[in-house]
Amino acid sequence: MATRYVVIVPSCEDERLTIGTKRRHKLERNVQLFHRLLQEHPTWQEGSKQDILSIADGATRLSGPFYCPIIAMVTRPGESDNLADAIRGAGYSINPVKYPLVPKNLERVRIMLHADNTDGQLLDLVQVIAGWLKERIE
Question: Hey, how many other C-beta atoms are within 10 angstroms of the C-beta on 22?
Fold first, then answer.
């Protein structure tokens, strides 16, 4: 009787799935880190109390613990261009979203995070937002 050998060769699909899973976990971590850094920043806390800037309801959470990587930062009317300019000035690509795409009193900038963002980029983005807020806090 001949000995039979079974050789298991991972398919490319398995490798892609592993890479995809790692990237998804990194994206989730980045989104959670951004929210934590922003919400723990004292300038954010004061600015949101004064309704200068907020995160749109429903835009940050899906069901369960996953945070959405598209974050709608709602500004006071007429301020979305200024926030977008400040963020662009720091080297990030961003555009304001204004009426008629959103209601007139709910202008925003839409931040889109990805798995390749570094912790340093997220911290820098929070610092830029905090600096913009600080200029407007009464």
Answer: 11
Q: Locate the domains of the chain by residue range.
A: 18-134
pLDDT tens track for 66-120: 578 999 999 999 999 999 999 999 999 998 999 999 998 899 999 999 999 999 9
CATH number for 18-134 (one of 3.30.930.10, 3.40.50.10300, 3.90.1150.10, 3.30.428.10): it is 3.90.1150.10
What is the separation, in whole angstroms, between the first and last Cα of the chain?
88
Q: Are strands 70-75 and 96-97 parallel, antiparallel or unpaired?
A: unpaired
Residue 129 near residue 87 (C-beta atoms within 8 A): yes
Note whether 83 and 71 are within 8 A (CB).
no
**Residue owning tokens 């709608």:** 72
Encode pLDDT of 18-46 as tens digits: 888 899 999 999 999 999 999 999 999 99
Residue 78 contacts residue 57 (beta carbons within 8 Å): no
